[in-house]
């Protein structure tokens, strides 16, 4: 028999489960947590001139009636409730407003009023609270018999909220960094150059070989887009990419203009998503590359696969993911690996936006199987994967959300832990920041890795 939500929470070795469940009795407790909207300066940094009028929400909702998908999502819910316990945010808070159907009802009841909807009926604070607590993971859509995709409703609602200047400061501040420096972490060209030189020295020491990590080369076949966290925190992931490029003899470069595989635009508005995607496209065209290769980032790959790919294609440039490239290299015998260097049992965790938005399920698994001794699947895997609990921009809020995120990510870690593996492999920049936090909070014996880290350990140079 499958464990119930309460059992999963109670099984946490953190010793904090009862206290957490008692807080769930105040079902709207999370409402007060997220009240930190962006300030005027932050809005101006991301080019938003806020329309501070609830009438704008009413107009936005009227506009959405032109979208067949949105109308379908509003009209077809049977209130069967199947989706409720599929959402980690509901599991974490016990608040039905934080479930897929509960969240949608906040909009649906306004939608149903049709032309009779008055601005005074729109509770912007409530919409803000619950629509920025959806991590846009799309898990609900897999289980809903009607195929209702709450993540798409969330993106539509956030689009309007962003135009109104209603956006959390942690999302706005991260996006402002991208406009300023080309990456979420605000690393300027000099800092990126220093990191690259440091990693080159380490690689040369480790391998005894001259391995290049080219930056800002003017002519190259291939432009590589890392997550900025790979440059700063997950440097073993960066080494894995570099070793693969080296043994595959790729003519490649990174660019200090665009060192970010993530795209926080998807957590704000379509305009911002396109702005960040277009930044990559523009740089690929300027450099005259034939291919753009994307690094490890779940939601970033979703935006690349569904938007950047088509913009690049208009310019005759291809897009691929580093896992797809690595899989081919291993299959063709160009990349030689020794799986005994990762001599243990590993569980692959599908990042939501690879499995449910990026069509990237088999390639990372095939790569993992080639580079470690043994793998095991968790109960919920592939399209049914559980969210890390930090998507939708929530990772960037390191203040109020820390404990909340530890519980929102617990179901995913729980099922990885139950496989008996001591290693969880989760090749997404958000997961790599979130899962160590969840694992540490719950005190389970697991280590979290990026996939390219393990490739880097196993590769024969
Ligand atoms: S998209 Fe994910 S976080 Fe949002 S309502 Fe659905 S299951 Fe919950
Ligand atoms: S599973 Fe689908 S139809 Fe059922 S309540 Fe949830 S959104 Fe509505």
Top keywords for this entry?
Rossmann fold; binds iron/sulfur cluster; Fumarate Reductase Iron-sulfur Protein, Chain B, domain 2; 8 strands; 4-stranded parallel sheet; 50% helix; mainly alpha; Glutathione S-transferase Yfyf (Class Pi), Chain A, domain 2; 461 residues; 6% strand; globular; 3 domains
Please characterize this protein's 3D structure.
The protein is mainly α and 461 residues long. It has 3 domains: 26-32 and 49-166, Fumarate Reductase Iron-sulfur Protein, Chain B, domain 2 (Orthogonal Bundle); 172-330, Glutathione S-transferase Yfyf (Class Pi), Chain A, domain 2, CATH 1.20.1050; 335-458, Rossmann fold (3-Layer(aba) Sandwich), CATH 3.40.50. It has 23 helices and 8 strands. Strands 2-1-3-4 form a 4-stranded parallel sheet. Helix 22 links the parallel strand 7 (423-425) and strand 8. The radius of gyration is 22 Å and the shape is globular. The termini are far apart. The protein binds iron/sulfur cluster (2 copies). One iron/sulfur cluster binds next to helix 7, helix 9 and helix 10. One iron/sulfur cluster is lined by residues 86-87, 89, 100, 103, 134-140, 150-151, 154, 387.
Question: How many beta strands in the DSSP annotation?
Answer: 8
Determine the mean pLDDT.
94
Q: What general outline do the C-alpha atoms trace? A: globular
What's the CATH topology label of the largest domain? Glutathione S-transferase Yfyf (Class Pi), Chain A, domain 2
Largest sheet: 4 strands, parallel
Rg: 22 Å
Task: List the total number of helices.
Answer: 23
Percent in helix: 40-55%
Detail the poorly predicted runs.
none
Q: How big a fraction of the residues is strand?
A: 5-15%
| Broad CATH class of the largest domain | Mainly Alpha
The count of domains is: 3
Going by CATH, the architecture of the largest domain would be Up-down Bundle
* Terminal-residue CA separation: 48 Å
Which ligands, by name, code or SMILES, are bound? iron/sulfur cluster
Major sheet strand order: 2-1-3-4
- Helical/strand content category: mainly alpha
């Amino acid at each position: 028999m499958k464990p119930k939500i309460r059992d999963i929470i109670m099984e946490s070795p953190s010793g904090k489960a009862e206290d957490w469940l008692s807080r769930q009795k105040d079902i709207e407790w999370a409402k007060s947590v997220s009240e930190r909207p962006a300030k005027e300066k932050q809005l101006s940094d991301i080019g938003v001139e806020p329309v501070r009028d609830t009438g704008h929400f009413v107009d936005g909702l009227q506009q959405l009636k032109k979208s067949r998908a949105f109308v379908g999502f509003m009209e077809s819910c049977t209130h069967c409730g199947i989706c409720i316990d599929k959402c980690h945010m509901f599991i974490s808070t016990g608040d039905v407003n934080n479930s897929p159907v509960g969240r949608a009802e906040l909009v649906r009841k306004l939608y149903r009023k049709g032309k009779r909807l008055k601005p005074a009926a729109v509770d912007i604070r409530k919409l803000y609270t619950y629509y920025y607590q959806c991590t846009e993971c799309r898990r609900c859509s897999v289980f809903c018999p009607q195929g209702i995709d709450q993540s798409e409703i969330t993106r539509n609602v956030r689009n309007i909220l962003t135009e109104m200047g209603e956006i959390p400061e942690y999302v706005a501040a991260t996006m402002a960094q991208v406009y300023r420096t080309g990456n979420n972490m605000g690393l300027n060209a000099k800092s990126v150059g220093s990191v690259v030189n440091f990693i080159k020295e380490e690689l040369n020491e480790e391998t005894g070989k001259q391995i290049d990590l080219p930056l800002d080369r003017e002519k190259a076949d291939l432009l590589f887009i890392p997550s900025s966290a790979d440059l700063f925190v997950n440097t073993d992931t960066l080494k894995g990419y570099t070793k693969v490029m080296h043994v595959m003899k790729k003519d490649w470069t990174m660019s200090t203009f665009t060192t970010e595989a993530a795209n926080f635009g998807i957590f704000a508005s379509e305009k911002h998503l396109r702005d960040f995607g277009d930044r990559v496209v523009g740089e690929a065209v300027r450099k005259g590359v034939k291919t753009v290769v994307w690094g490890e980032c779940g939601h970033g790959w979703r935006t690349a696969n569904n938007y950047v790919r088509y913009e690049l294609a208009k310019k005759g440039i291809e897009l691929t993911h580093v896992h797809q490239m690595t899989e081919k290299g291993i299959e063709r015998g160009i990349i030689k690996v020794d799986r005994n260097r990762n001599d243990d049992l590993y569980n692959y965790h599908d990042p939501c936006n690879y499995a449910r938005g990026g069509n990237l399920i088999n390639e990372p698994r095939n790569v993992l199987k080639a580079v470690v001794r043994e793998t095991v699947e968790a109960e919920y895997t592939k399209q049914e994967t559980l969210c890390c609990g930090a998507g939708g921009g929530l990772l960037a809020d390191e203040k109020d959300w820390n404990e909340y995120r530890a519980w929102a990510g617990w179901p995913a870690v729980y099922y990885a832990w139950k496989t008996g593996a001591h290693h969880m492999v989760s090749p997404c920049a958000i997961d790599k920041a979130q899962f160590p936090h969840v694992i540490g909070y719950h005190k389970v014996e697991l280590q979290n890795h990026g996939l390219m880290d393990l490739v880097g350990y196993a590769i024969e140079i």
